[in-house]
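User: I'm new to structure prediction. If I give you an amino acid sequence, what do you actually give back? Let's try with this one:
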Amino acid sequence: MWPVTERLVSMAPRRTRRRYLGGLATISFTSLAGCIDSLDGQNSTPAANDTQTTTNATSTPDSDATPGEKSSDGDSITGSPKQVVRAYFEARYENPTAARQHFHSLHPFHPDNLSEEKATTLLSSEGAISDIDFDTRDVDVTLEMVQSAPLLRTAEVEQETLTDALAGERTAVVETVVTTADGKRNVSRIATVTSDGEWAILALRIDPKITQSAQFEGRVVSEVSVDTDEDRVRLYFDGSPTAEELTGKTKNARSSRSSSTPGSISYFDLYPDGAGDELIVTATVDGDTRTIHREQYPPSERVVEDVTYDEDPESDEFDAAATVSFADDRNGERYVVESTIHGGSVDVGPDDSATAVVGVAPEADEIVVTRTTGDASDVVHRERHRF
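Assistant: Good question. You get back a string of structure tokens that encode the predicted 3D arrangement of the chain. For your 387 residues, that looks like this:
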């Protein structure tokens, strides 16, 4: 069994219970194959948390399952969103035909809709998993979210049928990062829903723009100024932050500032360790605390030297773009540059250029740079930008 890192928050509550009406449009095997290209991942990282303490979220320790959990009408619910998604990925690498049983009956991959022969072709993943990271998010699964999944659009499942499947059921979005033995990271955003007392997968590859747009309500860092003579960093916040609480801290020097009235402050001063440190800023919105900014200190020790943005790039490939400039000496390490809203991703190897260009959403986006050394990976830079 591979190591599992997880952060769980409470799922969307169940309000009433209604049975959905069955129905699935017939689609061809060719159509399914056309949608399967990126089922291992969306080549983007969810706005995943860096390791931190979250005081306002409810965590479920250790076990995948939630035995004895009850719905609002007293029905027992088996398992959890994380459990069904983990079982799905396990099956894809070990027994593809078994992966079908984890889908909602409306989904084209449910056993009633997909034969074992086709499942072996469509659901098989090569290689082995070395690590898998789950984040079960407190997000209501909406009709728009489900219909953003490419496969369900191709299947032409009727809107009324999907609405009935969601009505009265508990829902959750599971953001999953699967790292394979060859070091590749595949990101998936999966919509789950209860059905007949069990959690099931309703949609794969839901659009990150829909699931993550609300996160920018907590974007507050507008500028960072550095005084290396005094080892002081000033974090400036934008004029109208909507976060309930802001916290700025250093990783090594134990310098921190926090405010539950962010609208009344314009900056924090932090005092990092001059020998080497990290600056970390978190924001709490609707009880969910997330890292929104991370960078290394002092500037001379940064792996990421600068990030610049272009809202009208010369290339037609992107509507907007970010250019990440790396230090020349990367010590043989590999990096992944990702835009969490647009869904762009660029791998940067030890011998690659010191700059990486990634597409970003034209209104606002978040850039995350992850370093990989051997089997370990860590976020070395994170920032948000509005045009």
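You can read the tokens as a compact description of the fold. Here is one thing that stands out. Residues 216 and 364 are 8 Å apart (CA to CA).
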